[in-house]
Specification:
With 96 residues, this protein is mainly alpha-helical. The chain has five helices and two strands; from the N terminus they run ααβαβαα.
Length: 96
């Protein structure tokens, strides 16, 4: 049981909701126009791509990309993909 008396999964959901609230706050996404980009591994068995898509979808203007044929540790499993995704984000019009 989590310290709050709920399940460990509930505790994680509450913390994730708090993180989303912070990420999507006008203070971060308003006048400063912070660009949010997220890359998720397609075959990750810890973080489902749908979760990443939903997380990015909750942040106004966020970009989302899936790294194909890789798991939770893309920098080791498919080391060429992550730099390419980062370069793709940097080259996107939102980066200007």
């Amino acid at each position: 049981m989590a310290a709050s008396g709920g399940s460990p999964q509930r505790s994680v959901r509450v913390k994730n909701a708090s993180a989303l609230t912070t990420a999507a706050s006008p203070r971060l996404s308003g006048s400063k126009r912070v660009g949010w980009r997220m890359a998720i591994a397609y075959s990750d068995r810890i973080v489902d791509p749908g979760y990443g898509r939903a997380y990015a979808g909750a942040i106004p203007g966020a970009e989302f990309r899936i790294l194909a044929a890789t798991g939770h540790v893309p920098q080791i499993e498919t080391p060429g993909q992550l730099p390419g995704a980062i370069q793709g984000f940097a080259a996107s019009p939102k980066s200007a």
